Amino acid sequence: MLLQEILKHNEQFVENKEYVPYEATKMPQKRMVIVSCMDARLIELLPKALDLHNGDAKILKTAGGTITHPFGSIMRSIVTAVYELNAEEIYVIGHHGCGMSQSNPKGTLQKILDRGVASQEILSALEYAGIDLHKWLFGFDNVIDSIKGNIELVRNHPLIPKDIPVHGLAIAPDTGKLDVIVDGYKELSLNVN
After folding, report:
1. How many domains does the chain have?
2. E strand segments, 84-161
3. Per-residue CA distances from 130 to 68, 70, 84, 140, 166 (Å)
4. Among residues 86, 113, 128, 180, which one has the fewest Cβ atoms lying within 10 Å of its Cβ?
5. pTM greater than the 0.85 cutoff
């Protein structure tokens, strides 16, 4: 069982003090907060591609690296990072070939039904209550447009200071190559003039 394997490893990890190289404070040393995809290929690749080490940044992971609501948990975490954890820059980092760009809400809902988690009546009741499940489960059509949309949401948020650069990048999940989509420094200088 996976949990038992994890706990056995953890016991040895703590006993052997393997945590020592990872000791850090809760304040991000590079004063940055990152919103990125939960894709498993990015767990180690993303920090290495950005030259990040333990304690350097706050990294928020979500399906597609998307911010789905201006007052949801991802935005709350960004606001907290800025005001309580001294983050001075915000990075929205999507990735090429993201599965959320090929999401299939209809297929996901069918899998929910097939597993017996919900019935068609429950799904219909949720829709009747105003929850658009297709929209909620849908990712995006284009990763570049998604990154730009997330940047606009953050940049125009009423609780984010206007002097914080909000950058947009897309990472290649196979090589780690970064493509700049939006240079937050340039955007700030354009808005100052």
Report:
1. 1
2. 89-95
3. 16, 18, 35, 21, 32
4. 128
5. yes
Backbone angles phi, psi at 171, to 5 degrees: -110, 145
d(CA 191, CA 88): 17
Separation of alpha carbons 76 and 46, rounded Å: 22
Angstrom CA distances, 110 to 57, 86, 130, 188, stand at 38, 44, 19, 45
pLDDT in tens, 166-179: 999 999 999 999 99
Whether the CA torsion 75, 77, 83, 89 is positive or negative: it is negative
Quote the domain boundaries for residue 41: 26-103+139-192
- Other Cβ atoms less than 10 A from the Cβ of 85: the count is 15
Sorted by sequence, the CB contacts under 8 Å of residue 73 that are 6+ apart come out as: none
Is 177 domain-assigned?
yes
